[in-house]
Amino acid sequence: MYLFLLRHAEAEASAVTDFKRALTPKGEKQAHHVAEFCQQQQILPELVLTSPVLRARQTADIFISHHPTSELMELPALACGMSPDIAYFELRQYLTFESILMVGHEPDLGMLISSLLGASSAYAVHVRKASLTGLQMLKPAPGAGTLEFSIPCKFL
Fold first, then answer.
1. How far is CA 41 from CA 29, 37, 74, 114, in A?
2. What is the tens place of the pLDDT at every residue in 36-83?
């Protein structure tokens, strides 16, 4: 399975609640840029799983607007605070898909990447806003991933 991880794009510094922080105009441009890059590079996930937190959901919605053949699912478990174990549990539900894009948050995505690569530190990887990481994964489990690429948005 190919697993693509996308951290949400730039969001407002504050809102009524953290859950309701929306993308900034720069964040919207970043999300479009990542989606266009994926189109150009034939990165076409069959399934997009997203956090329900507004900034992640907006990033996923923009991605889907460029990839209408991808199925979009919002998963509450992907909200801020997702552990690698929770991510593995969720991913096991979708083993029939060959490629999945997960839109989420930091430090959650960095911890998941670290775990998939078998890194000894839970915080060995830092994922910048609107960065795209691609891994090949034998199964959703610690040490079962191979890093294919990790690209900050400014280099896409």
1. 18, 6, 25, 25
2. 999 999 999 999 999 999 999 999 999 999 999 999 999 999 999 999
Query: 64 CB contacts (<8 Å, ≥6 apart)?
Result: 48, 70, 72
Determine the 3-state secondary structure of 84 from DSSP. helix
Element (H, E) at 146: strand 145-151
d(CA 82, CA 31) in angstroms, rounded, equals 22
Q: Provide the total of helices (H) and of strands (E) in the chain, helices listed first.
A: 4, 6
pLDDT digits (tens, 9 = 90+) for 101-148: 999 999 999 999 999 999 876 668 999 999 999 999 999 999 999 999
Peptide bond into 107 cis (omega under 30): yes
Listed residue (108, 111, 135) closest to 124, CA to CA = 111
Give the DSSP letter of residue 76: G
How many CB atoms lie under 10 A from the CB of residue 108? 23
Determine the Cα–Cα distance for residues 111 and 34; give it in Å rounded to an integer. 22
Cβ atoms of 17 and 61 within 8 Å: the answer is no
- pTM value > 0.90: yes
